[in-house]
Amino acid sequence: MKKELALDIQRKVLSNGLRTFAVTQKGILSSHVVLGLRAGARRENAETNGIAHFLEHMFFRGGIRYPTQEIISRAIEGVGGNFNAFTGYDKVYFVIGIPVNKFEVAMDVLSDMLFNAQLRTEDIDAERGAVLQELARRADDPSSIAWEELHKLMYGDTSLGRPIVGPRENLERFSRPDFVRFRQEMYNAREAVLAFSGDLNVKSAYSLAEKYFSGLPRTSSYYGFPDEPISSSANPEIVIKQKDFAQAIITLGVSAPAFHSNDRASAIVLDGILGSGMSSRLFQNVRTLKGLAYSVTSDYGNGHDFGAFVCSAGVSPTKTEEAIQAIALEIRRLMDEPPSANELQCAKSFRAGNLAMSSDNVSTILGWLVGSELSYGKAVTPTDAIHDADNVSRKDVTRIAQKLFLPGGWKVSIVGPYGGSVETIQDILHTTLIA
């Protein structure tokens, strides 16, 4: 039986078309506000790559009522709150946690930042240095390099194949008109969802939402995501980046169901069996049995119209080929035979337990509501996700493994002091995955 969350969730559309959710919790002293917009890196081209993330930074530089970063910070932190934002490929999120009696402060600050951002040239130049240092930090992180190289292989010269932070030449070139244009095109009520929580009077809370967020334009001239092909080939594609690191970082990726797909739940359970948690096959066989890696996982992620299934590990450079073969063997096993009933139930229970525990954090619930409304056009909660996974069978796992794990579909990036060749890795994958 599907157990519902013990929360009062109400949905309302404001006068400008902005979709909102109010989540009321009696006796809770905190409040959260989450605003999500489909204004991530998917909305960029090669010339504007990096501006979505850079603009997210610039909002913190001040509006009219809160004109500087320091004043914004003190307005939130000075009443015991916290503030964060992050940019992904599909979406950008702004998240505020604050004592419930200061709920209006959160609405006031967030709306002023977004609608009244000054985007001063001197602030852009100052923030440019911070963003360039963020780029430099990623260049020193082998896992970040490996994932970016994998994205290039999987998606080619499209927005999905480019790093969210953007290239140095773009970051050094962006000026005020670029930010103003991107905000005008992407920040509108059609592409946004607002959610808030706490021990609130819902009628009063919605009055505040109308007061502060009805200024978000209803629409713009820009709609939808670009229609971008995903690269493919008859053979596995591999890139090796020689770096002076202690480990070789391996990532193997393949296209997977998008958020809308009916196969999404099956892919989630497949991920649980293959590489999520200490009882997963990759952990047990690649780490525990063979000692090839400290960290070895799989990860299934999806967006509005794309998905990726990725296996990753950090290994001794001299063990790179052995580790890739060991990972490929576990992939092949899932294609050949269904998991046991116990293994299937363990994967479902592990995910359900993690979702249940995350649901205790109401900001997580708000994130689910906002993200699913933006991606799917309706609210999806962790409870819904648990229910969907419960219906996945052993045959479903084998079917989705055979559908996704086609030998020619794999892309591989290796970052570190690995001395082998692309041809060697191709041979390992070919002989292991084609039994």
TrEMBL record:
<dbReference type="InterPro" id="IPR011249">
    <property type="entry name" value="Metalloenz_LuxS/M16"/>
</dbReference>
<dbReference type="InterPro" id="IPR050361">
    <property type="entry name" value="MPP/UQCRC_Complex"/>
</dbReference>
<protein>
    <recommendedName>
        <fullName>Peptidase M16</fullName>
    </recommendedName>
</protein>
<dbReference type="Pfam" id="PF00675">
    <property type="entry name" value="Peptidase_M16"/>
</dbReference>
<dbReference type="GO" id="GO:0004222">
    <property type="term" value="F:metalloendopeptidase activity"/>
</dbReference>
<dbReference type="GO" id="GO:0046872">
    <property type="term" value="F:metal ion binding"/>
</dbReference>
<dbReference type="Pfam" id="PF05193">
    <property type="entry name" value="Peptidase_M16_C"/>
</dbReference>
<dbReference type="InterPro" id="IPR001431">
    <property type="entry name" value="Pept_M16_Zn_BS"/>
</dbReference>
<feature type="domain" description="Peptidase M16 N-terminal">
    <location>
        <begin position="30"/>
        <end position="167"/>
    </location>
</feature>
<comment type="similarity">
    <text>Belongs to the peptidase M16 family.</text>
</comment>
<dbReference type="InterPro" id="IPR011765">
    <property type="entry name" value="Pept_M16_N"/>
</dbReference>
<dbReference type="GO" id="GO:0006508">
    <property type="term" value="P:proteolysis"/>
</dbReference>
<feature type="domain" description="Peptidase M16 C-terminal">
    <location>
        <begin position="174"/>
        <end position="348"/>
    </location>
</feature>
<dbReference type="InterPro" id="IPR007863">
    <property type="entry name" value="Peptidase_M16_C"/>
</dbReference>
